[in-house]
């Protein structure tokens, strides 16, 4: 194969790799919002303020100040370790909460309510 024809093979490959119509996810802190999920059979709520990756997590009668750390395709929820909660992360869309506890991973679906600014 001649090098002058190589570009004819590469252009279609490059175009196939582009997804211009794919969904664009906005940052989890782009608006004031409240994310509701269930964790260990109890209602969980995460309140996020626009422009901040600090959040308030409410679980049962507990209110916990947490930080959200953006990782590749999710947000790690940073907080003081609690063996009843384990480690938490939430997907970028805010629709799934992932709990890692006792070497088991569990995923719960969530809903998001936008709050006035």
List the helices and strands in order: HEEEEEEEEE
Distance between the termini: 60 Å
**Major sheet size, sense and barrel closure:** 9 strands, antiparallel
Strand content: over 45%
Low-pLDDT residue spans: 9-16
* Mean pLDDT level: 85
Helix content: 10-25%
Principal-axis shape equals: globular
Q: How would you classify the helix and strand content by structural class?
A: mainly beta
Description:
The chain is mainly β and 117 residues long. It is built from one helix and nine strands, in the order αβββββββββ. The chain has one helix spanning 6-17, and strands at residues 33-39, 42-48, 54-59, 62-71, 74-78, 87-91, 96-101, 104-109, 111-114. A nine-stranded antiparallel beta sheet has the order 8-7-6-5-4-3-2-1-9, with no helix packed on it. The longest helix is centred in the N-terminal third of the chain and has 12 residues, at 6-17.
Would you summarize the structure shown here?
The chain is mostly beta strands and 117 residues long. The chain has one helix spanning 6-17, and strands at residues 33-39, 42-48, 54-59, 62-71, 74-78, 87-91, 96-101, 104-109, 111-114. A hairpin with a 2-residue loop joins strand 1 and strand 2.
Features:
nine-stranded antiparallel β-sheet, 117 residues, 9 strands, mainly beta, single chain, 10% helix, 1 helix
């Amino acid at each position: 194969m001649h090098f002058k024809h190589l570009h004819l093979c590469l252009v279609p490959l490059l175009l196939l790799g582009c997804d211009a119509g794919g969904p664009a996810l906005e940052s989890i802190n782009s608006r004031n919002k409240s994310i509701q999920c269930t964790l260990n059979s109890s209602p969980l709520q995460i309140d996020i303020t626009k422009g901040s990756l600090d959040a308030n997590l409410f679980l049962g009668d507990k209110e916990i100040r947490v930080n959200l750390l953006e990782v590749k395709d999710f947000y790690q929820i940073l907080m003081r370790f609690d063996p009843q909660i384990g480690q938490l992360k939430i997907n970028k869309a805010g629709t799934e909460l992932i709990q890692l506890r006792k070497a088991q991973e569990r995923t719960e679906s969530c809903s998001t309510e936008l709050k006035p600014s």
